[in-house]
Design goal:
single chain; 2 domains; Lipocalin; 181 residues; eight-stranded antiparallel β-barrel
């Protein structure tokens, strides 16, 4: 009888360990990114061209182009994508890092005012392109700064849609750009 208890006890321990290890490996599989730097670079790098419409109280350029390239980063990640607690019984929500990839970009924003005699203005931009998912569908968020303002845009279906804001936060102009072929 004692031998059977030992066998059942050992079997229970083996099954518990196997169950935990399979859950851990499944979590690892579920939490891995399906893309890398090359896919993100391919999605955002290049020259984007299109038109602009004015923001409130602004005279917008008639055409806009944005040239972006990858810029190597000198920072490392501060966290990984692990759940720190699973206490769903008591409704506790634990801190968690976000499933996100980000890469630095730099480039030039060029705007041309066709309605006036103003020549094209070239402004250096520097920022980041981020994807908020473990899966990459070709889209993401661009956030960049330049002297005198910020640029924010969403990339979706090969269209970059966003706005340029002045230092005071007011929208200077909105744009819709497509990659130059």
């Amino acid at each position: 009888m004692f031998a059977w208890r030992s066998v059942f006890g050992l079997l229970a321990i083996v099954l518990a360990i196997a169950g935990c290890s399979s859950d851990a490996s499944r979590d690892e599989e579920e939490e891995s990114f399906d893309y890398g730097r090359d896919e993100m670079k391919g999605a955002i790098e290049g020259t984007w061209e299109g038109s602009a419409k004015p923001g409130a109280g602004s005279d917008a350029p008639s055409s806009v182009s944005l040239t972006l390239t990858y810029s190597a980063s000198d920072v490392g990640t501060l966290c990984n994508n692990r759940v720190l607690s699973r206490d769903s019984v008591h409704g506790v929500i634990a801190p968690r890092c976000m499933d996100m990839s980000s890469m630095n970009v730099s480039g030039t924003l060029t705007s041309l005012h066709a309605a006036t005699s103003n020549p094209a203005q070239n402004v250096a931009v520097r920022g980041s392109f981020s994807v908020m998912s473990l899966r990459f569908t070709g889209g993401g968020h661009l956030q960049a700064e330049f002297d005198g303002g910020t640029l924010g845009a969403e990339l979706s279906s090969d269209v970059l849609t966003g706005s340029v804001a002045r230092a005071d936060g007011t929208t200077s102009f909105e744009f819709e750009l497509r990659r130059k072929k």
